[in-house]
Amino acid sequence: MDDLCLHSSNIKSIFSTLIELVKSEKRYRLTIKIWKDKRTIDQNSLSHMWYTDIAKQANQRLKTNSYTMDSVKHDLKEMFLGYEEIEHKNVITGEMTKKLELIKTSDLDIGEMHFFLQQVESWSYQNGFKLRIPNNSEYRKLQLEQVA
């Protein structure tokens, strides 16, 4: 089941779904938390633009081709987002294992992604990397609102 947004207009539908799930006699895990929209496509596009900007500039500085959009993305996520512990049940043995996995930006909500982008922007300028910020991007619009 995907995420559900619980509100007064869909409560009956959610109750019906829950009743059907209970009838299956399987056990389910429910997590209830305040709804926050996931990061936007615009935020994701901007972050990928920035990873590419940083990779190109790092390659120029160091006269190499070893930095890629993906390697920069990994390093910045590691620096600012960190890792979370993930449990995995082996389908063959049933053994439960835990491992650390880099936090995915797709799991961030709009506010968390904006904060991550601010951290990347600040780090970039402190380290001499110039980032493009399109005038029509959500990020630029929020910057301009903060100044006004």
TrEMBL record:
Q: What superkingdom does the record give? A: Bacteria
**Could you tell me what this protein is called?**
Recombination protein NinB
Which InterPro entries is this protein grouped with? Answer: NinB_sf
